[in-house]
Write a structure and sequence with these properties.
Length: 271
């Protein structure tokens, strides 16, 4: 891309992961890998590493609003994504922004619980997620545990996932990408995309073993937002984002005790 060509701009509204595998840090790496300029509205600071979350410090809702408004006042946002929003005040602030910017494609990753089991959403905030945030999304990307919280029951099979995707779409009026990585299958991972025109598409891939999946949901939702920012239609954005995540898992990098998602192509970085 020419140095005189404006990069598409996307925003991540999410929490900071001090271990850098998820949250704002993973989102910015993902935006950069797609040739998208990443901006942020940080909702929470976390003290965490891939083993778990020790502490969470939430930002004040008015400060989250100020970050979003400052970004929007300068940049032409082509897409945004939300991650960890944590409490009702932050969710309401984000919803106010989304309601007034309906032209910006919004990918909502309904982050609720960390892989380690730590709560990333206050109990009292669930009603705001269901009633306010989800209907404002262009696409919602829940995993099976998050779908269980929203619907009240957990899909246990691919047929269950199909029905859950339909139910989530009927509840929200929004396209759904239901992620099946938590199904009890050691060989395959199936995700289901259900769009507002009633089309359903299934993606099935061989499970990638021996890689820590911390940050995989953040990475996928950020990649979809980046592809939307580049003007791709939703189905193409989902397909390309999944391919990016799978490539990053298959070419994982070792940091510390584990192998993690490679967000950047090593050939594009200098030693």
């Amino acid at each position: 891309m020419s140095e005189n060509t404006d990069l598409p701009v996307a925003m991540s509204i999410a929490g900071s992961d001090s271990g850098a595998g998820a949250g704002i840090q993973a989102d910015l790496l993902t935006f950069a890998a797609h040739g998208v300029f990443g901006t942020t509205a940080i909702t929470c600071l976390t003290a965490q590493n891939p083993d778990g979350v020790m502490a969470v410090q939430a930002a004040k809702p008015e400060f989250v609003s100020a970050q979003m408004l400052q970004i929007d006042s300068y940049f032409k946002l082509r897409a945004l994504k939300t991650g960890m929003l944590y409490d009702k005040g932050i969710i309401n602030a984000v919803c106010d922004f989304l309601e007034s910017r309906r032209e910006i494609p919004a990918v909502v990753d309904p982050v609720m619980v960390a892989t380690s089991g730590a709560a990333l959403l206050c109990d009292e905030a669930m009603s705001s997620i269901r009633g306010l945030l989800l209907p404002l999304a262009t696409l919602i990307t829940p995993n099976l545990d998050e779908a269980a919280v929203i619907l009240g029951h957990r899909p246990q099979s691919v047929p269950d996932m199909r029905e859950a995707a339909r139910m989530l779409n009927a509840m929200t009026g929004t396209a759904i990408l239901l992620k099946g990585g938590h199904l009890d299958s050691h060989t395959q991972v199936t995700d289901i995309l259900y769009t507002n025109d009633g089309k359903m598409r299934e993606y099935s891939d061989k499970r990638v073993l021996n890689v820590n999946t911390h940050g995989s949901g953040c990475t996928l939702s950020a990649a979809i937002a980046a592809c939307l920012a580049k003007g791709q239609p939703l189905e193409m954005a989902v397909e390309n984002a999944r391919a990016y995540l799978l490539a990053g898992m298959r070419s994982s990098i070792r940091v510390g005790r584990d192998c993690f998602i490679a967000h950047l192509d090593p050939s594009q970085t200098s030693d």
